[in-house]
């Protein structure tokens, strides 16, 4: 063991590549267009480029094992041998991707949001009989890989307590079992891993425990004490950094302080240093540069915080508040941004430079006490209150909509998007580059809408969508048409696996200069006698999936966006659109991790949604959609949205949410087709899922739909899957008619 920690570090770094090299390599491998050796070479090159760049920027403590082919929680399950038998394959990579994406006849593991971020992780399954065994190949290989470049690294792993708290019990687990019951067994595997890393000459290991910043049960501090007491007492191990982020450690801080770990990481951007005195004698890895936003750090404030922590706790290391996985690579590539705005921004490279600079300034500053309360200050503000007038009661609306829309029992629809073909993406890029004109591009969009409408009519869907061929992303598209936003060209951030998004930058007051979606919705409706949904993204989600200005309270920013959505709803109605979907998949995502703060958030988030939608007439059917976000935890808030129809993820979680829904009082569409997997569900499988849903949801209120939009799938997959969905709905209509 060694007690010397470098003066500057980051808790993690982006891994997709500045130009999404990993995305392209993965999709090529999955489609059989390249070999495993090709994929591994791309991965090796990305890791090497990252380490060399971090070293060139002057960072002293380099992390390793932050690269992943899909997800770090899934990597941890493999490392621990926690692989359900149904996924095991002779090929280890086939096993890995089967867990993430499914395989022929086998659904993938559940996927949900990583705390309050838009990153998704794969949920491990742990049962009383799960056999744990160490597979240390990946972290060891990365240590050796970096060492061959002349660089020493610190392996980063999901900690044992967080791993188990984020896992779910296997379906056959007895009542009362929780994955945390297996802590002792898991800790023994970590102990063997630490011994192997020590034998490899590794000086430090980082164990991430972000679950400790959320409210925990009374048993959880005991789990922390047991895990790190056991690991800390190992005779042959590297020094341990236990890193927390996304908030305050709270009661877990003194517990960690009482264990033999050498260092504790604190998020001093979203959290505070309350109780930091307890860490005297340990190294405090102080996260003063935000890993969650794109704004330059307030250097003077960050330095004052670092000095005060050093005065109260001792040795301080400068770091990011969390992994930089959540921000793009390099703002200097964004030459199209307004220079004044660009000067305010810091992406991953700039944040590393800030960490290095702060470490140098701290080292040059003599230790002395500086008053510092450690708490973030919300600037004074005046909020404009918007009170939504109530729509008619649901029973009145439902009757009016039934008369107006004349839909069959168990109506079939989709969530909105259809496959984004390579031709569409190339045309959009060519338009942006000035290589084709607006007229040529719009002609292609019209042709795609015509194809999508014709396909849905041929398959027999009941409420159609225009397929969103004109949209690059469900948030970015709106950001491009609203004042107050800027969009990037290279600002990609990983959402899950090969899926990346470019979060817009919300830097000013939001206004809608003109209608955004009306033109294409009206055109699609002109092609069919069936209702076509107007497709909008809700105000909470637009804000949640953007990098948001930090000079206004979040609720005020959300209400500015809600004003724009409300105007769009009104214009869609005027254009004759009588089904309007306003998606809020991020509603659960933004719920604060501490219960004491949750009620206030949900109150204003629901109020913003209702303000955006309550101007619609009773004849207009309002839909909303939530996906992959543990929506069962906020059912009261979902109910309070007062949407006429709510669609939710259900296929991948095997109907987990339905048990919590109970007698949901309005229309409900539990997804029957997992669009994040290339699997095509059969009609029998869909029928079983719908039959299960009908035990909870009355036939007159059950909708039939996929889990999410179809943009990531191929037309071949979509057509086959939707044909099976329509067939299953038809069988049940006949049975229940």
Automatic annotation (TrEMBL):
Residue positions binding Zn(2+) 1:
625, 627, 649, 708
EC annotation? 2.1.1.14
Binding-site residues, L-homocysteine: 415-417, 468, 583
Could you tell me which pathway this protein works in?
Amino-acid biosynthesis; L-methionine biosynthesis via de novo pathway; L-methionine from L-homocysteine (MetE route): step 1/1
Binding of 5-methyltetrahydropteroyltri-L-glutamate occurs at 20-23, 113, 118, 499-500, 545, 589
**Top-level division of the source organism's lineage:** Bacteria
Cofactor dependence is on: Zn(2+)
Protein name (record)? 5-methyltetrahydropteroyltriglutamate--homocysteine methyltransferase
Question: What organism does this protein naturally occur in?
Answer: Microbispora catharanthi
Gene for this chain:
metE
